[in-house]
Structure formats: C-alpha cells, structure tokens
Amino acid sequence: MDWGALHTILGGVNKHSTSIGKIWLTVLFIFRIMILVVAAERVWGDEQDDFICNTLQPGCKNVCYDHFFPISHIRLWALQLIFVSTPALLVAMHVAYRRHEKKRQFIKGSQKCEYKDIEEIRRQRFHIDGSLWWTYTSSIFFRLVFEAVFMYAFYFMYDGFRMPRLMKCSAWPCPNTVDCFVSRPTEKTVFTIFMIAVSSICILLNVAELCYLLAKFFLRRSKKAGNAKHHPNHENKEETKQNEMNELISDSCQNTVIGFTS
Amino acid sequence: MSWGFLRDVLSGVNKYSTGIGRIWVAVVFIFRLLVYMAAAENIWKYEHDEFECNIEQPGCENVCFDHFFPVSHIRFWALQLIVVSAPSLLVVFHVAYRENREKHHNQKLYRNPGERDGGLLCTYLISLILKTGFEIVFLVLFYKLYNGFKVPRLVKCDIRPCPNTVDCYISKPTEKMIFLYFLVATSCLCIVLNLSELSYLICKYSLKRYLKRHKKHQGSKS
C-alpha cells in the first residue's frame, strides 16, 4: 500500500496551512493512515476466510458474506482517507499557480516584483488571503462534507458501529436460516470505534479551522473599514510612501533583471 | 507490484504539461493508482480460492472460473493504467531528443527545449489522442468481455467436465461492482480531461496563428 505519494503531496500543502490545518494533517497521518496500514489491515486480513457459516451448502457463505459486507470496513476507510485528502490538492494547485505567475512577472521584469531571485519565489510561504483564502476555505468545506458523508454511509450500511458476533442469513442458496460467525468481532469493534472517534476529532478540527478563518476575515474587513473612516489622510500618506517604495523596488528589480540576463 | 516507476515517469511528464494535464496526472495518481494499490488489489486477491461451485466434480470449478474470468478484472485495471500512461512518454522522449540534439551540435537550437511549440506540440497532441483512444478501447473491451460492468452473485456453468448445469458463486460481488463503477467513472473523467485539454490546445494555437497572420497582413498593407 503506497500512501507515501499522498504524504509527499500533502506535505507540500502543510507549509501554507494554518496551525489547526497542520494539526489536522498530523492527526490524519499518525492516527488514521498509520493505524490503517499497521494495524487495521491485519485485523481485517482474514475476514472472508474466517467468516464461517453453519451449513455445508456450497455458495451460502459467499452470498451471506456479500450480503452483510457490501463493502469492507477497511476499503471504506481507505476511500474515505483518499477523498478527505483530495481537497488539499486544490490549495496545492492554487499555490503552484500563484508561484508560476510571480515567476512570470519576475522574468518579465514587472513593476510589482519584490524578489531577489527565482529561488526566493520557490521558497516563499504564501499568506492565506485573497483568492487563496476562498480556495482554502472551500477545501476545508469539502473535507467536512466528505467526512460527514462517509461516516453516515458507514452508519447506514452497518446499522451502527458495532460488529456483531453472529449474523443470521437466509439469502438463497442458504437453506432456511443459517448462523454465520464473524471473525474477531471485538477487535474489529474496538478499531471501528477508534477510527470513528478520530474522524470526529478531524471534523471538529476542520470546523474550528473554518471558524478561525471566517473570524479572521471579518476582523480584517472591519479593521479596513475602520481605518478608511478614521484616517483618510493617513492612508493617503501611507499610499504615497508605498508608491515611493515600489518605485525604488522596481528600479532595483530592473537592475537585477538586467544583471540576471547579461 | 512496483508502481514506483510509473509514478516517476508521470512526475517527469508533469513538467511539460498544461494545467489540465497536471490535473489529469493528479487524477491518475490519486483516484486510480492509489485506489488500485490501497483498496482494489486486496479485494481480488483470493478470487479464485473463494470462487465456489455447488459440485464435487474435480476440475469443474477451475474450468468455470476460467470461462467467466478469461482476464481478471484487476489485471485488466493494471493493464489499462500502464497503457494509458505510456503515451506521455512520447513527450518526455521528444524533449530528451531536443536536449540531446543541442548537446550534439554544441549550440542553442531551441529557445527552450521544453517549450510546447512546433514538433513538441504535435507530439503532445498525438499523446493526448492516443491516451483518449486507449481509454475508450479498454472501456469497450471490458464491457464486451464481461457483458457490462455488473458482477453477478451467481453464474451458471455447464462446461465439461461439469455435469449438467452447476451453480457457481463469486466472492464479494457487491464490493467488486462498487470498485468497477469507480474505475469506469475515473476513466470517463480522464477522457473528459484529455478531450478538454485537446480542444484548449487546438483553440489556443489556432488563435495564435491567426493573430500572427493578421499582424503580418496588416504589416504588409502599411
């Protein structure tokens, strides 16, 4: 099982996340992916071999197993982890696009250039503002939706989070009603409850991050509105200062670009 | 199975792709390769052992399994992934050929060997057409081979040496069906991405050419 590739992709996003986002990522990798790979797979490894039905009728075991486990817990968790990690890609793509734009501006020698060289652009950590804020917030929203959908699907398919010891099956070709016994039900219940608990923690972290981002956004907005009302002259002075600085930067930038290309 | 090589190849292609091309690579990595390795492989692992027929006749199970699964779903999936990723290598080879040529002649022949113009653009378009073609071929082949994308619980088999008609039960049919639908959905998504990238590139470069010609025409007039 190769989760290493996912780890590389998400690790890149980590740089541009909030602190809560970084905690979420750690929880995802240590308490979900690692537990899935190291422990849960072993527990569910022999699930069909050791699923035993009290009948000699060929085919009855297969049919009953398929009826009670339309999709195995372990596969459902693997899909959940993949879907929940995917929205982070949106952020990674947006950051890559921004970086590409800054590189283009730098190479063209544009007025807005603020970097000494291309390496600095590559290493730069972007703040979550502007359109990146919207991408980041929608990625958290999608994460929440996927987590909730998978948890509900799990609850709906297995009638709760407990793994019963015995299941009564009367699907054809089983004659009448047949007792079928699940292997390691207690261990499976323990791991199921653990994974559900960690999913809930991840949902809480996502909700907290969403609230934090929204609060920051509204605070920033009210600050801007407050500044514009009380200090219009002050802002003009600041603007002219910024313009002078920009001119200085663009001059030095032109020199750097000329030096770079010659 | 070592898919690391395919991963490295696709990462190499990423450098020379458009934005849509990068989305295609991400979809192939995450929704096809990762799902294949993390989930799908294990479902089909013991498919032959768990295929059960209601008969004691030796050889009947083997013959029936072979009749209903000439090529296992999972091997088909793996083959599709490999064949569909292969055309991207054309682009990598062309760029390597350009760089080699520059080294051989010891002078700068191209503005940038990785820039999508002229020959490299043609190679890129051909690779897109091939990728789309292969996806469609595999989907149609799969549909024809297994009479649709459903996996039945029970199949009736009457091939020698099975006496008369025998009931055979497939293991985990519902789970297999869910993942097969997933495979079809991601294939269709990849086809859509390839077609949109193709139309985007054709429109972009036709517009460029038209504008160039228009400028030349205006220039010659004045």
Strand and helix map with partners:
The complex is a heterodimer of chains A (262) and B (222).
Chain A lengths: L3 H11 L4 H25 L8 E2 L6 H9 L4 H13 L1 H22 L9 H6 L7 H28 L7 E4 L8 E4 L3 H46 L1 H30 L1
Helix pairs in contact in A: 1-5, 2-4, 2-8, 4-7, 5-7, 7-8
Chain B lengths: L3 H11 L4 H25 L8 E2 L6 H9 L4 H13 L2 H18 L13 H28 L7 E4 L8 E4 L3 H49 L1
Antiparallel strand pairs in B: 1-3, 2-3
Helix pairs in contact in B: 1-2, 1-5, 2-4, 2-7, 4-6, 5-6, 6-7
Written account of the structure:
The complex is a heterodimer of chains A (262) and B (222). Chain A has helices at residues 4-14, 19-43, 60-68, 73-85, 87-108, 118-123, 131-158, 185-230, 232-261, and strands at residues 52-53, 166-169, 178-181. Chain A is mainly α and 262 residues long. In chain A, 73% of the residues lie in helices and 4% in strands. The longest helix of chain A has 46 residues, at 185-230. In chain A, α2 (19-43) runs antiparallel to α4 (73-85) and α4 runs antiparallel to α7 (131-158). In chain A, strands 1-3-2 form a three-stranded antiparallel sheet, covered by helices on one side. Chain B has 222 residues and is mostly helical. Chain B has one domain (9-216): de novo design (two linked rop proteins), CATH 1.20.1440. Chain B contains seven helices and three strands. Chain B has helices spanning 4-14, 19-43, 60-68, 73-85, 88-105, 119-146, 173-221, and strands at residues 52-53, 154-157, 166-169. Chain B is elongated, with a radius of gyration of 24 Å.
Number of domains of chain B: 1
The total of beta strands of chain B comes to 3
- Write the element-wise H/E pattern of chain A from the N-terminal end onward: HHEHHHHHEEHH
Evaluate the radius of gyration of chain A.
27 Å
What strand line-up does the widest sheet of chain B have?
Answer: 1-3-2
Residue share in helix of chain A: over 70%
Number of helices of chain A: 9
Overall 3D geometry of chain A? Answer: elongated
CATH superfamily of chain B: Gap junction channel protein cysteine-rich domain
Largest interface: A-B, 31 and 37 residues
Assign the CATH architecture of one domain in chain A.
Up-down Bundle
